[in-house]
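Re: [ENG-882] Designed sequences occasionally contain unexpected residues at chain ends

Forwarding the minimal case from QA. Structure tokens:
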């Protein structure tokens, strides 16, 4: 199905459904899916750390193995392509250096000369000291220390206290999920369908993708073009808006 490129965002969001059965005749173009993954990389994320990787699977043999690892769900077994969103918190030092280098260049290009050094020092402190401190992991011990430190500071001034090792992990996964959502919206704008899955054997998926120990699978998203209404489980259901909307 080809969508009209003039569709607005609301129409795109209404088109997007979690599709669990894909057509074997109508197939998405690999390069267009790749471009949607590039759009996903534009998603907002915590401190611009971009602790993610995207694995675009098109190999038929690997797709079959992915189907097994994803509990033989039809969304995967019928999908001509699968994109796996992976969290790479273990790359936090490398990514912090990359962001710091870019930030330093931006300051030198755009800031008044008399403010450049001060602003650079602030960024060096944040990406050189604070970020490594927040994202480092050591059997939960560092997280306990961070929690005690920030809790004590928060007694005297506002201070985030979501700094345990599990908190940092949640932050990395939330950022990756924003990228996954951006990808699905981009795919819908192309007239392509997706289905975000959390029902998979993470250990087997990591092995199939040859991921290192520090990597974590955030979401598996099979892609394709819906097989009529076979893969859509009835009308979309949402909790009444008045029940979830709170105006203060």
């Amino acid at each position: 199905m080809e969508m009209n490129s003039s569709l607005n965002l609301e129409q795109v969001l209404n088109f997007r459904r979690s599709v669990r059965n894909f057509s074997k005749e109508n197939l998405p173009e690999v390069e267009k899916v790749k471009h949607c993954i590039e759009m996903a990389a534009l998603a907002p994320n915590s401190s611009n750390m971009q602790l993610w990787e995207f694995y675009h699977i098109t190999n038929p043999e690997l797709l079959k193995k992915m189907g097994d690892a994803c509990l033989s769900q039809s969304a995967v077994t019928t999908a001509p392509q699968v994109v796996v969103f992976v969290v790479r918190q273990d790359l936090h030092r490398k990514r912090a250096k990359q962001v710091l280098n870019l930030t330093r260049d931006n300051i030198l290009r755009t800031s008044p000369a008399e403010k450049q050094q001060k602003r650079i020092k602030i960024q060096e402190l944040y990406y050189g000291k604070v970020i490594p401190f927040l994202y480092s992991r050591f059997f939960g011990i560092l997280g306990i220390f961070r929690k005690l430190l920030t809790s004590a500071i928060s007694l005297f001034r506002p201070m985030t206290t979501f700094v345990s090792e599990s908190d940092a992990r949640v932050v990395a996964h939330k950022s990756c999920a924003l990228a996954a959502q951006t990808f699905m919206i981009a795919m819908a704008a192309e007239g392509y369908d997706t289905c975000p899955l959390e029902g998979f054997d993470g250990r087997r998926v990591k092995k199939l993708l040859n991921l290192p120990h520090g990597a974590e699978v955030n979401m598996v998203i099979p892609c394709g073009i819906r097989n009529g209404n076979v893969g859509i489980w009835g009308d979309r259901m949402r909790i009444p808006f008045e029940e979830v909307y709170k105006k203060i």
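QA comment: On inspection the terminal residues look reasonable. The chain has ten helices and four strands. Proposing we downgrade this to a documentation issue.
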